[in-house]
Structures are given as structure tokens and as C-alpha cells.
Amino acid sequence: MRHMLNPLDFSVAEIDQLLDLASDIEHHLPKYAHACDGKILATLFYEPSTRTRLSFESAMLHLGGRVLGFSSADSSSAAKGESVADTIRTVSCYADIAAMRHPKEGSALVASMASRIPVINAGDGGHQHPTQTLTDLMTIHSLTGRLDNMTVGLCGDLKFGRTVHSLIEAMVRYPNVKFVLIAPDELKVPSYIREDVLRAHNVEFKEVGSLEAALPELDILYMTRVQKERFFNEEDYIRLKDSYILDKAKMKLAKENMFVLHPLPRVNEISTEVDSDPRAAYFKQVQYGMYVRMALIMTLLEVERPC
Ligand code: NCD
User: Fold this and answer.
1) In this predicted model, what pLDDT tens digit does every residue of 62-118 receive, in sequence order?
2) How many angstroms separate the alpha carbon of residue 127 from the centre of ligand 1?
3) What's the whole-model pTM score?
4) What is the spatial distance between Cα 56 and Cα 66, in angstroms, rounded to a whole number?
5) Residue 297 confidence (pLDDT)
6) How far apart are CA 145 and CA 277, in angstroms?
7) Beta pairing class for 177-182 and 205-208
8) Is any atom of ligand 1 closer than 6 Å to the C-beta of 243?
């Protein structure tokens, strides 16, 4: 039995296969309408979510399966003090696969160790968010035709942004990908990303403070929200929340064929005036998120590709 806890749980070849399946799903959606007939997905969300939970649910419904779950810790037995391990043992009796989001780093791993069904990490604290990464990879591949030979700028909260950590871990495996890490000093990537991921893979990267200065060289700009819920004090959040705001004027500094991604939700780090720019790809990204989750559910459940 396989889980998806970290993007590295899948090799580059397996990710290629998964993206290939997701692309087939995109182009032949009705063909997959019964791929998971009779299967049940549990969504165990201890933290707020719109896209991730609903896209998992929509993915399973589009595959002909059914869904159950909870969308906040308050409405589950976590409120009574139940452990994640006991919850997943219970859910293993009701469902065939589970997607879990939790505010604590490592909780999906803990769940997987007690689980009798595949566990998908739908975000564990400020740590990892592998299915957002699959979404990001599919988006970048669909828009540019490649996942190698590019300069990727990541901007905003690179400290607590789990989507950033997962994307970097996944992309260092492709040839000639360079990173420009754009963040205020207080929100730079954690040292394990700098040392154990970027430096360990001999990947070219720089850490800068200015979005304007970085923009002209980027092929992809990955904007992120300052993660209010992970700050220890409100004052720091207020001071840092508007560090970067991408607007029309800044977009003029970017390449004509650069794309802007954002895992969403956006607060105000991308002005709505950018939404109509053909380079704004964050709502396309949402659509791709459902296809990759369909592909992932099929893969973990070892469901054959329908002909
Ligand atoms: C992200 C997350 O939850 O980490 N959202 C998402 O899943 N699409 C990013 C965020 O919350 O800022």
C-alpha cells in the first residue's frame, strides 16, 4: 500500500506517468466516470480549506466514487481529544482512501503509520503539500511544455508556505531549474530547504528582497500568501503581510511568456487587475488540481486506466 506524504514519495518517472494520466483525464473526462465505482474517499480536514478539500471531493465524484469526512477539527472527535492515529484507524473501516489536512507538521506521516488505507497529505502545518505540487507541476508543464530549463521565482512567505517547500523539493529533480527566492528576511525558506534540498542537489538559487529586480529573468512567478495562522504574534504578521503586491505595473517588467501561479487563497498579494493578464495562470491551476487528484486517487487505489 502506498501513501502520498511528500512529493518525493513518487519518482520523477512516476510523476511523469501521473501527469500523463491527469492530462488524459483532462481531455477525456467522461471516460473516467466509473473508474472508482464503489470506492469511498474520506476527507479529514482539521484546518480550513476550499480548493483542496472540494477538489478532492470533486475528483472522487468525477471518478464515480463517493465521499465522506469532516471539514474542521471542531466537528470531529479531535475536539474530544482523539489522536490522529485512532481517527485514521476508525476511518480505515469506512473508506478506501483518505486525504488529510492538519495544522501539525508530520501528522499525515503519523496517520499513515496507523492506517490500513492509502493516506494523502493534503497539507501538514508549514511542512509539505504534495498534491498542490502535482497541481503546480501539471500547470507549468501544460503552459510551457516542460519542467526543466527554467527560472522559477517564489515570492512571499517562503518560511511557512508548505506549497513552496513541496514545489522546491519536487523541482530540484529536473535539469537546469534555477530558483529566485523572493522574501523579506523574516520569511526566508527554512534552513533544511536551503541546505538539504537546494545545496544538496547543487541547484543554482539566490535569495533576494526585491520582486521588481527579480521579475525580468523569471519564467514562472509563484506568488504566495503570508500565512497569518502560523505567526506567533499579530504585530509581525501586520508588518509583513503586504511585503509584496503584484500589480499591472510590475507585470510590465516580466517576460511576455512568464506565467504567474498562486496556490490560492489570495489575500492582496496579487492585485485583481492582474487577473485579466494572459500570463495569470492561478485559476487554470485550480482546474488542473482536480485532474491531478483524480489521477492520484486512481494510482493509489491501483485502478486500471479505462480504455
Ligand atoms: C495553500 C495551503 O493550504 O497551503 N492553499 C491550497 O491548498 N491551495 C496555500 C495557502 O493557504 O496559502
Assistant:
1) 999 999 999 999 888 898 999 999 999 999 999 999 999 999 999 999 999 999 999
2) 11
3) 0.97
4) 11
5) 98
6) 20
7) parallel
8) no
